[in-house]
Every structure is written in C-alpha cells, then in structure tokens.
Amino acid sequence: MQKISESARIRLEKAARSAAARAYAPYSRFPVGAAVLGGSGKVYSGCNVENASYGLCNCGERTAIFSAVAAGERSIRAVAVYTPTRLPTAPCGACRQVIHEFGPDALVISVCDAKGRIETELSALLPGAFGPGDLL
C-alpha cells in the first residue's frame, strides 16, 4: 500500500469534499466527489456527472482519474472519495478497475459526513484484478 503524508491526506479529502459540491446528480441525488494523488504529487479532483441515458453517467473517481491522465499523469498513489452520507461509500467495481490501471497499489480513502471512514489498499477492494500484465 502506498504511504502518503498527513498533509497529502488532508488535501485529498478536502478536494474530494469540494468536488462533490460540483456534482451533476439530478437523477440519483447522490453527489460524489473524488480526488487522486498522482505520481507527481499533484492532486486532481472530479465529481459524478449523470445523464438522462443512465449508461452514459460517469463516477467521480473516474472523472478525477481521467483529469489526471489528461494532465499527463500515468500513476496514482491514492484516491479519496467523499459522499454526503452517514456511512462512507467505497468505489464501485468499474472505478476500482480504472484505479487498478493507474495505481494497483493505491491507497483508497472513503469519507462521509460522519466520523466513519474506509482506508484500505485497492487490492483488498479488487482482489485478482485484471491488468495490463494479463494481456501478454
């Protein structure tokens, strides 16, 4: 599991909370904010963006990762996810797979409005993940 500093952890969680405020979630009314810590040390945030054609929605985690990749990042050290709920929510399966592509050893932090939190390594959330090595 990646180790990150307390200041990086605070920056990530703050960016994820801020991103949730910008979510476009008129259908689920479930705003999600996420932030990723790239290999460069920069933080990228994203929110969920829904669509009337539900299959075209995008999760906050993937939005943040895609923003990081668009900026040139190719590795992710950590991901923070914020939901305005009583209990923390872990990333969905699709997001776990995308996190694995860029951060198979990434730290995943999920926070909410209460004191609860999930802090684990991606491999615990996605055991036996399919990755680039499986294509060889």
Sum up the structure in keywords.
136 residues, alpha+beta, five-stranded mixed sheet, 4 helices, 29% helix, globular
Task: Provide structural commentary.
The mean pLDDT is 96. The chain is built from four helices and five strands, in the order αββαβαββα. The chain has 136 residues and is an alpha+beta fold. It is 29% helix and 21% strand.
Please outline the helices and strands:
Blueprint: H1 6-20, E1 33-38, E2 43-47, H2 60-70, E3 76-82, H3 93-102, E4 107-111, E5 117-121, H4 122-125
Poorly predicted spans = none
N to C succession of SSEs = HEEHEHEEH
| Global structural class | alpha+beta
Distance between the termini: 25 Å
Strand order of the largest sheet: 2-1-3-4-5
Shape: globular
Helix proportion of residues, in percent? 25-40%
Strand count: 5
Q: Main sheet?
A: 5 strands, mixed
Rg of Cα set: 14 Å
